[in-house]
Amino acid sequence: MDDVEQKPLSPAELKKLKKAEKAARRKEQKGEQGVSQAPQQNRHKPSNKAKPDSTKPGTTAHKKSASTDTQSTSQYALGTLLGHLELRPRLGAPVPEDVNSAVFELAVRMSAFQVLGSTERCRQMLLAFQRMIREYRTPPDTLMARSLNTHLGKQIEYLKQARPLSVSMGNAIRWLKQEISKCLNDSEDVVKDNLVNAIEDFIRDKLDAASQVISQLAVPQINDGAVIMTFAHSSVVSKVLRDAKRGGKDFRVIVVDSRPLLEGKKLLQELQAADIPCSYVFMTGLHYVLSEVTAVVLGAHAMFSNGMLYSRAGTALVAQSATDRNIPVLVYCESIKFSDRVQLDALTTNELGRPEDMNLQIGANTSVKALHVLYDLTPPDCIRKIVTELGNLPPSSVPVVIREYRNS
Known about the structure:
Elements: H1 11-32, H2 34-44, H3 60-81, H4 101-111, H5 118-135, H6 144-162, H7 167-181, H8 188-218, E1 226-231, H9 235-246, E2 251-257, H10 264-273, E3 278-282, H11 286-289, E4 295-298, E5 302-303, E6 309-312, H12 315-324, E7 329-332, E8 375-378, E9 385-388, E10 391-393, H13 398-407
Parallel strand pairs: 1-2, 1-4, 2-3, 4-7, 7-9
Antiparallel strand pairs: 5-6, 6-8, 9-10
GO molecular function: guanyl-nucleotide exchange factor activity; translation initiation factor activity
Protein name: Translation initiation factor eIF2B subunit delta
GO biological process, one term: cytoplasmic translational initiation
C-alpha cells in the first residue's frame, strides 16, 4: 500500500507543535527532579536555628561589630554627623596676590582666634576694607566702582578662608556692595571719599550707637541687689554692666565660662576694672550658683528669623537651666546681627574650632578625635526678651525687624 503523502505544516501549526514538545520536556524534567527540589527550596529559605543572630551578644559577628564600632565611633561622628563642617587651615605668609595687606593681617588674626566676637570682627573687617579702598588703584580704561567690586570679592573670599563670616559681617558686606553700586559713574576720588565716609558712618550708627542705645534701655532694668549671670564674653553685655555700675547700680555678676577659649576671663577683667563684684565659675559649677541668680543676660552671635539665638556653645545650657528655675533670660543684640535664615539645630550650620586648642592629653590613642564646636542654638521659649537699639522685642519680632530694615 503506497504511503500517504503528508501535507506540509503551516507556520501556526509548527509553532503549536514546538510549544507542545517544550511543555512535555519541562514536565519530564520536573518528574525527575521532584525528589531533590524540596531540599533545594529549604536550603534557600532562612532558618532561625541554622543561622545565628549576629546582633545577639556573644556571637562572633556581634563581637567583631562591637570592636569595629568602638574603634570608629568618633571618626563616624566626624565623618557622617559633622563631616560637612570644614576646619579652616591656619593662615600665614606670604601675602597672596590681589589681597590687601590690611585684609591679610586681619585674616591671619582671625585664623588664630585673636579677634573674637561678631561685633569686633565686623568692625575690624570694615576698617580693613576702608584701608583697602584708600590704597586701591583703578586699572586703566575701567570704572572705579566696577573694578573695586571685583577686588572686594577677592578680599571677602580670603577672609572666608580664615573663618566663616559672621551674620553681622555678611550684612555689612551686603550694605557695602550697595554703596559701591551707587557710585558707578563717579570719579575715583569721589568714590573713595564717599565709601570711606560711609564706612565710618556705618560703624558709628550700627555698632557704636546701637550698643549705646541698648545700654540706655537695659541699665534701668537692672535692680539694686540683683545677681546677674552671664556667659563667655559679649562686648554689649560688658558695656551695659559697666554703664550700670557708673550709674550707681548695686549688683553682683557671676561669669560662667568654658574651655577652650575661656572668653569669660576677658569679661571678668573688664568688670573687675570697673569695680563690679564678680564670681567666676566653669560650666560644671553652673547649677551650684543658679539658686543665687535673679537674671541672666546673654550676648548673641546672631538672631535667626524663627527666634533662635545663635551664640557661643554653652549658651543654650545656661538659658535652659535658668528657664527651668523661672529666672528671666535677656539677650542684648544689635539689629545688624539679625538674619533671615531659619535654623532648627546646631549641626546643620556651625563652625569648628581648632582641636589643638582643647589641649587633650590623649597620648598615642589615635581612636580619640577632638571635636570643638563653637556655637549652639537657644530656642525662643528660653528667651524673655531681646534688647536691641529698636527697643525691647520678643523673639518672634525678628522677621518684622528684618523686613522693615530692608524696606528702608
